[in-house]
Structures are given as C-alpha cells and as structure tokens.
Amino acid sequence: MAIENKAPGKDIAPDDLVSKFPLAAKRSPDHVSRFTVAGVEFGGPLVPVMAGPNTVENEAMIVATARAVKAAGGHMLRGGAFKPLTFPYRGPKYFETREQGLGWLAKAKAETGLPVITEVMEIEKIAAVAEVADILQIGTRNMQNYPLLTAVAKAGKPVMLKRGYGASLRDWLGAAEYVLVEGNPHVILCERGVVAPHTHRSSSRFVLDLQVVPAAKEVTHLPVMTDPSHATFWRPWVKPMALASVAAGADGIMLEVHPDPANAAVDPLQPVDFADFASLMDDMDRVARAVGRRIKG
C-alpha cells in the first residue's frame, strides 16, 4: 500500500513520509505496529509500565524494587547502570554503577522474571548491555547520535528511543529511521519532556509534551510512550501526568520508582515510593479501561 501523501502540522512535510522516514511513516489509518518483548506486547490494548530507579544503586535495592514493581503489576524493570549524568563529578550521592549495575539488574531479572530495559551510551558497551536488557534504551541526549543508533539497531534487541528535549517530531522520526533502516522493526518512541521558557518550578527543566502523542500517531505506526517522571522532575506531578498520558493514548509509561525517594542517588525529587506506585498502577488501570485499554489483567 502506498504511503498517503498527507502530513499534519508545520513540522512534517508530505514528502518527508516518502523520502525522509518511509519506514517510520504510517501507511494507512489502521497501520499500527504491534510486537511482543519478553511476553509484553506493545502497540495493542495493553499499556505496559516500565518502572524502577534512575540509578541501580546496589543489589539489594534493585532486587527489592523489582519485587515491588512486579507485585504492583508492572511489566518491565527499568534502571540505569550507565548514566549520562549532567556533571562529570562523582560521589556517594551522584554516581553510576556501570558493569556492576548490569550484574545487579541481571540478578533482579532472574529473581522476579521481569524483563529489563536499561540505557546504552557507548558503542563499546552495547554487547554487555544487550546480554541483560530486553529493550535497549537510547536516552534523550543520544537521540541524534547516529553511529550509536546504527550500532544499537544491529544488536538484535528492541530499541526505545527517547525524544531529545529540543527535538521536533520530524527530528525524532528521523532518528527512528536510523534504527529501522538497519532492519530492526522494533522501535518504541518515548516522550520525556521538552525544553520550554516556562516550566512552572525553578527546579524543573522540561515540560511533558502530551500533544506529541496524538501528533506522532497521525504520522507513524510506531508505539509512542511517555516518561512523566523525567519530564516533570517533581513527584507530586508524576501521577496526574501519568494518568493524562494514558488518557491521551500513550502506548506505555515509564516511571521512576525508588524504595526511599528522598535519598535516591540521582534526581531525588521525582521518584515515587513502592506504596504510591502500587496505588498509581490501580489509578492508571481505571483510566486505561475508560478509553478501551488496560494496565492490569
């Protein structure tokens, strides 16, 4: 079926669907990609939830978090072993655990059966990360790191591509095309907040662009999810934006969950604790069912 020569908005021209990202482009209104990752389906009625800490701090912490995520009905464990930290300095409250963290993620996966998603930042580390991760995450800062995208695409694992915080929808789909053109069809788009002049709090740098969920779905068949935790950078706003994401049609939610949020090694203002996560899962499921989808069950 030929790609429709239509594109909404000022960002994407009709020719882009044919010449710039034909593999990411939607070919018809009912063209939707559905695929399963370790038993979790994306692009269907289920709205998968990926949850866990920003940083894999130690083995006990990530195993306990994995158990809490699974008990609440979460579908995947997220956790950062390799972290694109804003500043180069490291200390007891600002660090990454790298290969050791990957080992702890593997332990949590083995103990709970939860699939794992974690970020890959360096081409040299792709093989090590792919041994543990079921989905390879490309973070916002690497969205247009094209050599990394090309190499990750060849690893044979699904890829979650976070939108750059200054990227247009056109840029985002162009980056996705770098993965698709290598023969890897399993790409998930994740909105994680864009830079805006007014972010409502001095500590916040981003605004969750919920409008991009339906906008992207008009032009691409790829699943589109959101990360309310990183976008809001403020715990009290995570719940309402997660619920709004489900209502807006997001195909997945990534949430930061920590056993002791105030003492998280990285970004302590945004994670929710285990009890709040369990409650949020119930609330999101109710919203999902109101729009003909589900979080649980």
Provide an overview of this structure:
- With 297 residues, this protein is α/β, with parallel strands linked by helices.
- The protein has a domain at 40-84 and 93-189 and 257-290: TIM Barrel, CATH 3.20.20.70.
- It is built from ten helices and twelve strands.
- It has helices at 16-19, 59-71, 98-112, 126-132, 146-153, 169-180, 212-219, 228-232, 235-248, 274-290, and strands at residues 35-37, 40-42, 49-52, 76-78, 116-119, 135-138, 159-162, 187-191, 194-195, 206-207, 224-226, 253-256.
- The chain has an eight-stranded parallel beta sheet. A two-stranded antiparallel ribbon has the order 1-2. Strands 9-10 form a two-stranded antiparallel ribbon.
- Strand 5, helix 4 and strand 6 form a beta-alpha-beta unit.
- The longest helix is centred in the last third of the chain and has 17 residues, at 274-290.
- The model is unreliable at 1-5 (pLDDT under 50).
Percent strand:
5-15%
Largest sheet, described in full? Answer: 8 strands, parallel
Average pLDDT score: 94
Runs in which pLDDT lies below 50 for 5 or more consecutive residues are 1-5
Using the alpha-carbon principal axes, give the shape.
Answer: globular
Termini Cα gap: 35 Å
Q: What share of the residues lie within helices?
A: 25-40%
Structure annotation, total helices: 10
- Sheet with the most strands: spatial strand order: 11-8-7-6-5-4-3-12
- Give the CATH topology of the domain at 40-84 and 93-189 and 257-290: TIM Barrel
List SSEs in N-to-C order: HEEEHEHEHEHEHEEEHEHHEH
**Which value, in Å, is the CA radius of gyration?**
18 Å
CATH architect. name of the domain at 40-84 and 93-189 and 257-290 = Alpha-Beta Barrel
